Amino acid sequence: MPRPHLFFEGVLLMELVCDADGDAAPRLNDSVFTPAQARDHHARLIREVVRMLCAGVVHGDLSEFNILLAEDGPVIIDLPQAVDAAGNNHARRMLLRDVENLRNFFGQTAPELLQTDFGAEIWALYERGALQPDTALSGRFQRQHKTVDLRGVLREIDDARAEDAARRLRMAQAR
Ligand SMILES: Nc1ncnc2c1ncn2[C@@H]1O[C@H](COP(=O)(O)OP(=O)(O)O)[C@@H](O)[C@H]1O
Ligand SMILES: [Mg+2]
């Protein structure tokens, strides 16, 4: 993110993000890069997303239009609509969308990224309180299926049968 310089009467003055020539850096959507660069930028931006979430913030409008390509790598800008991760009902949905935007954009250049699911993985770790700025990520996410307690179910059935048998026996004896 650009370094903030001063905040005065609601205006935040930030560092100008520059490209290699010292000009204002282009947005990602106006930039050209190789598949290797796409993978590198994607990985670095995922790490930024994780660091923001560790600080309790979700960007909420992250896309190739709000990322500048500076001399030393991508820089995320345009944060006024960022939301508080813990206090906002939409935080999860917004984080998933932010990460999906990154995947779909860089996936155009490096198609293998289209198979990844970093958003769900990141949010699951965050929810469990297990997300750290440097947590290793796989890009895969296994949805948790609850294992069925088969023994427990069979025990319930046996109990119901035994109860029914006992009831029939009592009825037969009462006749
Ligand atoms: N720190 C910065 N350094 C260089 N250019 C910037 C910087 N911040 C914004 N810009 C330029 O201004 C444009 C609009 O900024 P942005 O923060 O995305 O506002 P919005 O999308 O709300 O109009 C960006 O697309 C970028 O080209
Ligand atoms: Mg913008």
Produce the secondary structure layout.
Elements: E1 4-8, E2 11-14, H1 35-54, E3 57-58, E4 67-70, E5 73-76, E6 83-84, H2 91-107, H3 118-127, H4 150-174
Antiparallel strand pairs: 1-2, 3-6, 4-5
Helix pairs in contact: 1-2, 2-3
CATH class of the largest domain: Mainly Alpha
- The separation of the N and C termini measures 85 Å
CATH superfamily of the largest domain: Transferase(Phosphotransferase) domain 1
Ligands = adenosine-5'-diphosphate, magnesium ion
What's the CATH topology name of the largest domain?
A: Transferase(Phosphotransferase), domain 1
Order of helices and strands: EEHEEEEHHH
> What would you say the CATH architecture of the largest domain is?
Orthogonal Bundle
Strand order of the largest sheet: 1-2
| Broad shape | elongated
**Total DSSP E strands:** 6
| Radius of gyration of CA atoms, rounded to a whole number | 26 Å
Oligomeric composition of the shown chains: single chain
Uncertain ranges? none
Helix content estimate: 40-55%
Give the number of domains: 2
**Structural classification:** alpha+beta
Q: In words, what does this structure look like?
A:
- GO terms for molecular function: ATP binding; protein serine/threonine kinase activity.
- With 175 residues, this protein is an alpha+beta fold.
- The protein has two domains: 4-144, Orthogonal Bundle (Transferase(Phosphotransferase), domain 1); 146-175.
- Helix content is 41%, strand content 12%.
- The chain has helices at residues 35-54, 91-107, 118-127, 150-174; strands spanning 4-8, 11-14, 57-58, 67-70, 73-76, 83-84.
- The strands form three sheets. It has a two-stranded antiparallel ribbon with strand order 1-2. A two-stranded antiparallel ribbon has the order 3-6. Strands 4-5 form a two-stranded antiparallel ribbon.
- Strand 4 (67-70) and strand 5 form a beta hairpin.
- The radius of gyration is 26 Å and the shape is elongated.
- The chain binds adenosine-5'-diphosphate and magnesium ion.
- Adenosine-5'-diphosphate binds at residues 2, 14-17, 24-25, 27, 66, 68, 77-78.
